[in-house]
Design brief:
By secondary structure, this protein is of the alpha+beta class. The chain has two domains: 2-199, no CATH class; 216-271, no CATH class. The chain has ten helices and twelve strands. The strands form five sheets. The chain has a three-stranded antiparallel β-sheet, with no helix packed on it. The protein has a three-stranded antiparallel β-sheet with strand order 11-10-12, with no helix packed on it. A hairpin with a 5-residue loop joins strand 5 (101-103) and strand 6. The radius of gyration is 26 Å and the shape is elongated. The two termini are 30 Å apart.
Length: 272
């Protein structure tokens, strides 16, 4: 079973009001077990880029990353491939959120300041967006993961808390966890979630190379094989051609004299 696509689609709106720091840098530092009150060697830029590639790259054709959080990017919610070492680095070293860290400029020494939770809570209060909804954050992060049939919203929340080592204080001050209202809609679906479906409902990724090839939408042949006119409009996903032997399901050979006819009517082949 997989998280239903409509829940993934909804999480894009539920997470939109929040600063991307809480779904990116914060989780990277928590996964890396950054210490409190002292700094250690922690290659945060490379760690964050690795994190982006795992959770925020639905379109492999583009160098950009997609975030469900608010951004000031001209490309909508698509972030530059260098975001970890540019925009995210700026957030961590300048402005209000920089106070949450112990960091020596020009080094990879990083740690949480002793009052980092207060600093992060103050940021949420200033933004007036409330606390970050853990359930919807878990929907985004775990959207491609397989789950058992009995999985409930609170199971996703528990998995996130455990995997990212979220403390009780962080949980209480930074996140909201009521999930009763979220259980009204089906959480899981037998159909596997795919990023291709996500890309159909969001703005196109900058620089994404177009897909090669296409899908046959309609085919019409005249004077080829046993039929004077053959028209074929495939179904959306699967077409099955059946019939008794000898009815012409398969043309094994097209003579040289017929090839110009095929070329003449190639304009009737439409690709999607």
């Amino acid at each position: 079973m997989y998280i239903a696509f409509n829940r993934v689609e909804e999480c894009l709106e539920r997470l939109r009001p929040f600063h991307p720091f809480f779904g990116q840098s914060f989780l990277v530092c928590k996964a890396g077990k950054l210490p409190i009150g002292r700094a250690i060697s922690f290659p945060i830029n490379s760690k964050e880029e690795e994190f982006f590639r795992k959770y925020y790259k639905p379109d492999p054709r583009s160098k950009h990353f997609f975030t469900p959080f608010r951004t000031s990017s001209r490309a909508g919610r698509w972030l530059s491939s260098k975001y970890a070492s540019s925009g995210s680095q700026k957030t961590r070293t300048q402005g209000d959120l920089a106070k949450a860290f112990i960091h020596t400029r020009g080094t990879d020494l990083w740690g949480w300041s002793k009052d980092y939770v207060r600093v992060l809570r103050d940021k949420l209060d200033r933004d007036r967006a409330g606390r970050v909804p853990l359930f919807w954050l878990a929907v985004w992060l775990f959207r491609e993961r397989q789950w058992t049939a009995g999985t409930k919203p609170e199971h996703l929340v528990d998995a996130l808390l455990k995997e990212f080592h979220i403390t009780r204080e962080e949980h209480s001050e930074l996140f909201q966890t009521p999930v009763a209202a979220e259980a009204s809609e089906p959480l899981l679906d037998e159909e596997r979630y795919t990023d291709e479906r996500l890309l159909e409902i969001v703005e196109p990724a900058p620089g994404a190379a177009p897909e090669e090839g296409g899908t046959l939408r309609f085919l019409e042949l005249r004077g080829v094989g046993p039929a004077n006119l053959l028209s074929f409009a495939p179904a959306e996903r699967l077409s099955i051609i059946t019939g008794d032997n000898g009815l012409g399901k398969t043309f094994r050979r097209v003579s040289t004299s017929l090839r110009p006819v095929v070329m003449e009517f190639s304009e009737h082949i439409h690709l999607r």
